[in-house]
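Issue 218. Parser rejects a valid record. Input:
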Amino acid sequence: MEIKWLEDFLALASTLNFSKAAAERNVTQSAFSRRIKQLEAWVGASLVDRATYPSRLTEAGVKFVPVAQEALQILYQSRRNLQKEEGSDAKTIKVTALHTLSFTFFPDWMNRINSKAGPVFSRLSPDSGSMEENLNSLIDGECDFLLTYAHAQVPLLLDPQAFEHRILGHEKIIPVSAPDDTGAPAHRLEGATKPFPYISYEKSSFFGQLLGEVVGPALPPFQRVHEGSMSVGLKAMAQAGWGIAWVPESLMTTELSSGALVRAAEPNWDISVEIRLYRSKDNRRPIVARIWQARDAAA
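Output the parser choked on:
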């Protein structure tokens, strides 16, 4: 029995027309008819009633349709799984990463991973800006790993029985402003006589939820001047003088050292977060297991 016989039969079951099914399968009608007869000989029953026009399936043919569909599905899925294990996909990992981490942390981390568990080919999924959608990409199996910030006051709604994580590092989120002519912050969080201009994150983003929970209740009066989901955009707005933004320290090391951005508040307004890597416990791909075991994922 050949796979193409099953594919031919399902094409015929769909069209109930020998000429259309043959054209769909890109073979002559005579060759197509011969292959259907070969399948019937292998099954040991007539699958098509050729005495009617248009053709119709026999009772045996109707019963054989789901059998053929399931057989092909199993064969194709098995082939895909083997290709993933043995072919180029065996070295590929798919990662969903928060936008900032995708270029402040991910490149060096992948260097460490590649040296310990490589060779590895990585495919990075874009940050949607929404924590819920980022989590869903892991829950739905669209990625092998989720690289994200984490904080106790922003719970990640992942079942600990189904998902696990490693802490890869730590980060400080710092309130910054552009400097004035003297090098002091042009906008200050403390001691202002009027509401300070606030560059905020969208509420659905991780930092939007973090700031709302951690510093929101203690903030002095403010005037919201801009809202965005990406730290790099908020950093640019702060550097252009629009107001105060909380930005990951690793994203602005050059600007802080050059004085292009300065602290807008005392260090007690900083927020410490963890850098975490999440995976599904059900993900049994060998490359995923190797990375997970590579000295705590090359923390």
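Fixed in the parser; the record now loads. Residues 109 and 298 are 7 Å apart (CA to CA).
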